[in-house]
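Hey, quick one: can you model this chain's 3D structure?
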Amino acid sequence: MRVFRFPVVFALAALAALAQTPAAVTIEEYEPKSTLVVPRTEIKRAKYPFVDVHLHIADRPDELLRTMDSLNMRVMVSSFVRGGVGEPLKKRIESLRAASPDRFVVFGNIDYRGLDEPGYAERAAAQVEQDLRAGSRGLKVWKDFGMMLKDKDGKRVPADDPRFDKVFEVCAKYQAPVLIHTADPKQFWDPIDKYNERWLDLKLHPNRARTGEPSWDTLIAEQHRLFARHPRTIFINAHMGWLAFDLARLGAVLDKLPNVYLDLSATIVELGRQPRAARAFFTRYQDRVLFGKDTWRADEYANYFRTVETADEYFDHERKYQGVWKIYGMDLPDEVLRKLYYRNALRVIPGIPRELFPAN
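Sure thing. Here's the predicted structure for all 360 residues.
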């Protein structure tokens, strides 16, 4: 008697195939667990006391101080994004000084009101000078400067517009550094397609996409001309000048412009995927880079510390959507770390008490 087993075999095969069919997963949901077994260094507190030169928070200063202590942040530079002139600036300075006279430094802004009116350049410079005399220690220039700021006719005002020259001359006079943010990541100007490294970022935040003029290269060129025209003014180029993806080019900028410094805010996603090149850059330009983060999320500092202090491999950066890759520690030497964390800030930013930091 024959026994036909084919239907049973086919049924079992079909069930097995169904069991192995992968579930539909979007790129936003895809979170593979690494099976890589490598050392993992947990760092909650910086190895050396540090200055964060790029933050915007000022609320609840007593709470801020407790969090700063837990991170080993000795001094915070609190900058206005906009509106940091005159009375609002004075109030922030007084509020933070009341909480701690030594732990906070405040940067103000340029007043763009009346930009098209006669005498604007002199008025804007006089306001900055007044604010510096009132206790501001520097100037924060946000990305609207050069990219979004327009005159009364709707024409974009470039970053190297001569109407601002007197402002930067005042900063040079008072040795007040200018923390300047120009443009955005270069990928924001690229086509939003499968080749764009920031595709997920732009999908989740479509308002970040930049099209047409001004181009990224135009904005960066204007910024560099501004730096060159004011050699006596100290500029801290925020976010590594958005050139962390091309460290050779960034090094050439520093070689050409000795008045320019950098902060590393929002760039460990770039630095951490090229740890050997980044370590070489930070070592060569160890007197030119300052620590900064930009966004106030205390839990994210650990990733910054891990990136600059350790040789850890293949770990997450703080925001997956900024780049779907892992990063690696730069393992910076102690001498370089000290300069990054506090020594360079002590040289560049007035008003930071030296006694808060190690003598060496």
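One thing worth noting: The first strand starts at residue 50 and ends at 55.
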